[in-house]
Write a structure and sequence with these properties.
The complex is a heterodimer of chains A (471) and B (80). Chain A has 471 residues and is mainly alpha-helical. Chain A has 16 helices and three strands. The radius of gyration of chain A is 23 Å and the shape is globular. The mean pLDDT of chain B is 77. The longest helix of chain B has 34 residues. Chain B has one domain.
Chain lengths: 471, 80
Amino acid sequence: MTDQLTALQSIFSEFYYWVTVVMMFFIHIGFCMYEVGVSRHKHQQATLMKNTLVIPLVTITWFFFGWWIYWAFPTGPGIAPSIITGETGLRIDDGLFNANAYLANSPFMAINMTDRISGVFWAAFLLFSWTAASIVSGALIERITTFAFGILAIAIGSVFWSIDAAWGWHFDGWMLKVLGYHDAYASGVIHAIAGGFALGVLIVLGARIGKFSSSGEPRTIGPKNPWLVTIGIFLIYTGFWGFYAACNVPIWNVGTEYLGAETTVTYWTATNIYYTPTTLSGVTYNFLMSLSGGLLAGYIISKGDAFWTYSLGLAGVICASAGNDLYHPIQALIVGMIGGVIPYKLHYWVENTFKIDDAVGAVAVHGYAGFIGVVAAGFILNGFPSSGYSVGALFDTSGTYASINPLGNFLGAIIMFVVLGLIPGYVLAKILNAFGKLRIPREVEIAGIDYQIMEDDKEAEKTFTSSIATR
Amino acid sequence: MATVTNWIDLISASEAVGEVYPGASGMVGNMSNETLLVVIGVVLWIGWHLITSISESEKLSKIARKRPGPNDHKSNVTNW
């Protein structure tokens, strides 16, 4: 960088993503507090530790292969040609944005004076990965082993969400071209897939002991610490600001991008993840309106239940996220309200009908709301461009982009929730279960996973007390 | 190391361009520093899972053998 403006643009982008990473860390803190607040006292330390381990496990695997998958798989492979190479194979060629640049031993996966973006962009996506794994974590509390959860966290955080992001959240993704898939702030690519994955695991894992009576009636094992739950979910709301910002490209010359390097047209703007122009300002309207829609509807539908009202506020945001780059704020509000109602009803219907014990409502708030949000965007945004490249098309010499449409987004939602979420979650849980590694022993679940820690602490206290008494 | 070679290549001093510090060369034969470090990282990662699987099974079995009741933990709640 030898001129000031280039340096300013580059270092601004670097700092922008760095800030989003810090903000998204609040999501993880929020998930930890929320899950501990829901779990019973005798399981709380294990619950916290399980979610803490998401950080190292997903981080190192995202470094080893998760980030590479994102760049390698946008063509399917074999489904739609890349707009850069015209080929349908894995993007391991020498062209722009090829995956080999992000192999773990690549010079770009380290401090590199010629590259000020890969690390922070990698980290922003990594924080999405943590979120995906944390969504699954909450549903499984109080009965899954740490080992099994670690394997599942890596699977959803560094493999399956990475594949779905390559397919439907990459400017060169085949789902944009073939289906017109649009999911700007990740209703499907993070939330629906993680919710579907959690449901697949829950089917095999089974309910907590005592959740259902002998006649099959569900019992409420409610939040044990309302303050932790409240602060936790408010921190998740806070982190979502960073999440939304990280889904944008902060400053980009779409004139050159669409019309070629020779053009005299320059137009600097923020874009969404598909390089379609948008503004962070406009998206801010929609974020807050959809949150409000979810909270208002959640309050009514749950009859003022605090746990569900807060959760359904989040469901409102998640439901509107697919189209929040293009919605009018009132549309965002209405979609947010839908996201506050249907997932709640579905949660109890699934619980009663199939005896699924989703401890924190994660499948509902993330899975069902995300699925519905993607489908809704297909109807509301019917005919809008799915990618900036379908408008100007600098690279679009071989692949063409379908417009956003209801069928495409519906099929996209199925791919996210079922194909890349529910089925892999179910299969992996079956394998872990076959090896006896999925669920903790019955005796431990009844006593509490923290039983030994608490007993050791009690013994230490006794020693302390007796040492005081003998003085 | 890419960091060092990049940095050297980027600064304009003619005597430094293209120079590589002794510590920036490959550690083992033709294998780059980066590749070797990644191999070490993967070993640590797999090893962690193996150790965790074994130690967690032992810990859970130990509690299971004691067969504590559902409310026994309450007598272990401490005040300090």
